[in-house]
Amino acid sequence: MLGSSSTTVKNLPLKRRLCFLLKLVCFVSSVLIFCEFLIYYVVIFQCQWPDVKGGAHMSEKETSASVLKAIILADTHLLGEIKGHWLDKLRREWQMERSFQTALWLLQPDIVFILGDVFDEGKWSSPQAWADDVRRFQKMFKHSVFTELVVIAGNHDIGFHYEMTTYKVNRFEKVFNFTSGKLITRKGINFVLVNSVAMEGDGCAVCRTSEAKLVALSHKLNCSQQKLNHSNKRCNDVEKLPASEPILLQHYPLYRKSDAQCTGEDSAPPEEKNIPFKEKYDVLSQEASQKLLWWFQPRLILSGHTHSACEVLHAGKIPEISVPSFSWRNRNNPSFIMGSITPTDFSLQKCFLPFESRVFTIYCAAGALLVILVLAHVQLLTPPFYFAQRLISKHKAV
């Protein structure tokens, strides 16, 4: 009996240590699961699809049949083998993958548009590096057959104009089925995809081909919107499209002097807002911008490239929304746009992703608490209860 009691007393500290260790493992696991998985559900769950005019008077069946639910994001910049550090890749690509997959699961969009700069080093990538980057992209942005994914070319995908080659353009088009001047019509809504890198206006081979396709598409759209009693002989043999004003999707924004007039918490930082934009580098040239507006008379323009949010009115009536970057690598508060779109109307709502700084703060707070618990357990740090008890006992003794 005495031997058994002695063994129990000896095993008690070991059991306590194992129990404490188990508690620590549970605590650390809980923090990791929340910061790397659950936080995306908590944040994106708060986002709701915006209502379009007339949507409140339509039944649920009519709404789902006539309203296209679209998610628009930009500038994912998947790192490549040249500049990409493995830890940076791991951290930021996990953030984008969890954000995208959570948004698909919670919001169930009909279509997703990515407005260019999918890759960071597409302009330099060797064939093998390109294949590796594409494979990672397809894993991160995998989607069901019920959601369509449309990707636009950006300058980091095919190079700035002076780096752009037919080989790079064809390589991108082969993977993403993208061509400049391509029309996508869904639920009677016309989307025009523009390779804005090819809008240089210098007559290069890619530029000539791209502009020719855009002009032909403009003619089709204009003919489709004409009234029957104002028919034009030039439109007699033209394929008719839905008579809906198009939405332009491109990487470069149309020309604007700077981001000085942009507002909102995800607009450019104050020190960058007044820096003048360089035509054909930061924004399209004035000439190319006027061409697109004249050719298509769009009801909405969606662009990326600047990594910051901005809303501009062109010709006093045509709104352009610059979509911020989707990656923590480019901003602390990434986001995407949710659009409820009909052939005649649209409504947009921004959905913010978890802030990187807040996730970092949670980790720091959890780390500090973990250190305090360990020190208290090994009695290197006196718990506040015992410290107060000792003060009271000393006061009574006096």
Structural description of this entry:
The protein is α/β, with parallel strands linked by helices and 398 residues long. It has one domain (30-226, 234-356): Metallo-dependent phosphatases (Purple Acid Phosphatase, chain A, domain 2, 4-Layer Sandwich), CATH 3.60.21.10. It contains 11 helices and 11 strands. It has helices at 2-44, 60-66, 86-107, 127-140, 155-158, 166-176, 205-225, 270-273, 286-296, 356-377, 384-397; strands at 68-73, 111-114, 148-151, 182-186, 189-193, 247-249, 300-303, 310-314, 318-322, 335-341, 346-352. A 6-stranded mixed β-sheet has the order 4-5-6-7-9-8, covered by helices on one side. A hairpin with a 2-residue loop joins β4 and β5 (189-193). α1 runs antiparallel to α10. It starts with a helix and ends with a helix.
Features:
alpha/beta, Purple Acid Phosphatase, chain A, domain 2, six-stranded mixed β-sheet, GPI-anchor biosynthesis, transmembrane helix
Please give the structural blueprint.
Blueprint: H1 2-44, H2 60-66, E1 68-73, H3 86-107, E2 111-114, H4 127-140, E3 148-151, H5 155-158, H6 166-176, E4 182-186, E5 189-193, H7 205-225, E6 247-249, H8 270-273, H9 286-296, E7 300-303, E8 310-314, E9 318-322, E10 335-341, E11 346-352, H10 356-377, H11 384-397
Parallel strand pairs: 1-2, 2-3, 5-6, 6-7, 7-9
Antiparallel strand pairs: 1-10, 4-5, 8-9, 10-11
